[in-house]
Amino acid sequence: MSHLQAPQTASDKPRICIFDTTLRDGEQSPGASLNLPEKLEIARALEQLGVDVIEAGFPITSPGDFEAVTAIAREITRATIAGLARCTEKDIRRAGEAVKHAAHGRIHVFLATSKIHRDFKLKKAKDEIIRLTVENVKLARSFVDDVEFSPEDASRTELDFLAEVVHAAIDAGATTINCPDTVGYATPREYRDMFAHLIKNVPGADKVIFSAHCHDDLGLAVANSLAAVEGGARQVECTINGIGERAGNAALEEIIMAIRTRPDSFPVTTSINARKLVPCSRLVSTLTGLYVQRNKAIVGENAFAHESGIHQDGMLKERRTYEIMSPEDVGLMQTKLVLGKHSGRHAFRQRLAELELNLDEATLDRAFDKFKVLCDKKKEIYDEDLEALVEEQLESTQPLFVLKGLQVMAGTGGIATATVTLVDSGGVEITDAATGDGPVDAMFATIQRLTKISARLDSYQVRSVTGGREAQGEATVELTHTDRKVRGRGFSTDILEASAKAYLAAINRIRTLATRTVTRHTPLEE
User: Fold this and answer.
1) How far is the C-alpha of 36 from the C-alpha of 9, rounded, in Å?
2) Does residue 524 sit within a domain?
């Protein structure tokens, strides 16, 4: 039985378990890619945020995913650590191996149940679906006491058959039943009524937690998740910033603040520390490279900004006229601690801790050294600069090539030329030069010659991390090499240097991946 199955709190309000799948469904977002140090950093932040369950990955998909789930299971002690598995023996055994060291481990098993999935994807009859459900839930229970079962595409499954599958899963030993709106098709009323029907009519429903997992294809993921709570669901599956497959998942921060702001409509409680929402949002955005839109609810840059004269007048007279939440409630500070060249290691460490950036000593040392270098280039260092520094250290813990020097010559009517000096993993300096269609193209061509890696540039973006003339620039590139997409990011007050660092980070990832033989199965959507 799950250690989370205590639905009542001291206030007698039902407690909603928050199941975060940022590291699994969120990482399946196109363009999102995390290495092990980055995944551990996010897992630590999620634990501090107070999530009940962290779905750390899909262990069967690759050795990297297995390693990440295993590492997170060993380190995180308060939250339940879940590994995803299809209804196959090899998936379940792999997930069981990955979570076996967790203080609280869970195997999350899923199998499609809707007619369209049965007919076209699985090509299996209803009785075969029931048999597979029972066999594999029982197998999962042989590894852990906490098993979650998901009938994939539940919202498009015939209600009578869905009830039959759920009953079979409960009888086989499932402790949580998740009924996902896999393709974001449901409406809030339909979704609420589905949960209410299952909870009322399925034998044994009172012995398990029912869970909602909603995708945002029609922009209804949060509304559907809250409707599920109204229908009796006591676990909600979501991601930071709503990242995930296609249009994404229900956004954790929006669900939490809807519950907190409207207790009249949602008389429930959660274990989430809402003041850590903004720091967690920024961390995930920084590490995944998936930027939060300015007008995003709760954590967007404009979420608590007021430009209209009428709104400003109302705010000055009474804040509640145009704000239903306080920025401080979600961890958005009105003032920022500005660090500079005279700031010491203690102040640096303290500010990182306040930003939920808890680094080991070696990484902290490297980040502090980079901080001092940045201070010589930039008078004031802001939170966004610190987040960029940490991202750079986490993404390049063991780089194969390091940028040592860069010289670019370009001008109107001339041929752009770039000279680049790198230091390889053996400490040897290598230098080369190349021309290109502009300074950036010349830099990238030179790096390809030096590293002997040829890749197609699919995306190149540059943005300012902070404001002002001394702003630090962030460059992001996406490359394709032998049908594999990789992402690289670089930071500098010089945008050409940032661009070179980003390209080199992507090349380093290609070289690192090339040293392993990894067979990655295509994950099936939940």
Assistant:
1) 35
2) no
Q: Let me know if residue 280 belongs to a domain.
A: yes
Total domains, the chain: 3
The secondary element (H helix, E strand) that includes residue 433 is strand 429-436
* 196 neighbors 205 (Cβ within 8 angstroms): no
On whether both 94 and 225 belong to a single domain, the answer is yes
374 and 436 housed in the same domain: no
The CA–CA distances, whole Å, from 118 to 96, 109, 167, 177, 277 equal: 27, 17, 19, 20, 39
Residue 324 within any structural domain of the chain: no
Q: Is 123 left (phi over 0), alpha (psi -120 to 50) or beta?
A: left
* Per-residue pLDDT tens digits of the chain, which is 526 residues long: 455 554 444 458 999 999 999 999 998 887 677 889 999 999 999 999 999 999 999 999 999 899 999 999 999 999 999 999 999 999 999 999 999 999 999 999 999 999 999 999 999 999 999 999 999 999 999 999 999 999 999 999 999 999 999 999 999 999 999 999 999 999 999 999 999 999 999 999 999 999 999 999 999 999 999 999 999 999 999 999 999 999 999 999 999 999 999 999 999 999 999 999 999 999 999 888 888 988 899 988 777 764 444 444 554 566 667 677 888 888 876 544 457 777 778 778 888 887 777 778 888 888 888 888 888 876 667 776 777 777 777 655 556 888 999 999 988 878 999 999 999 888 899 999 999 999 999 999 999 999 999 899 999 999 887 666 667 888 989 888 887 777 888 888 899 999 999 999 888 888 766 654 333 444 444 5
Domain extent, residue 181, equals: 17-288
d(CA 11, CA 369): 48
Domain limit, last residue, from 395, 417, 435: 395
Q: Angle CA(158)–CA(164)–CA(165) in degrees, nearest 5? A: 90
- Asked if residue 421 and residue 350 are part of one domain, the reply reads no
Cβ burial, residue 322 (10 Å; 0-12/13-18/19+): middle
Does 412 lie in the same domain as 349?
no
Q: Three-state SS across 442-459?
A: HHHHHHHHHHCCCCEEEE
Asked if 278 and 239 sit in the same domain, the reply is: yes
Listed in sequence order, the residues at least 6 apart from 205 whose beta carbon sits closer than 8 Å to its beta carbon are 166, 170, 177, 198, 199
Rounded CA-CA distance 54/81 in Å is 5
Q: Please say whether the beta carbons of 51 and 73 come within 8 A.
A: no
Same domain, 203 and 273: yes
Q: Are residues 144 and 215 in the same domain?
A: yes
Q: Is residue 363 part of a domain?
A: yes
CATH number for the domain including 179? Answer: 3.20.20.70
Q: Are residues 369 and 387 in the same domain?
A: yes
In angstroms, the CA 299 to CA 293 distance is 9
pTM of the complete model: 0.76
Give the end of a domain, one of 331, 364, 395: 395
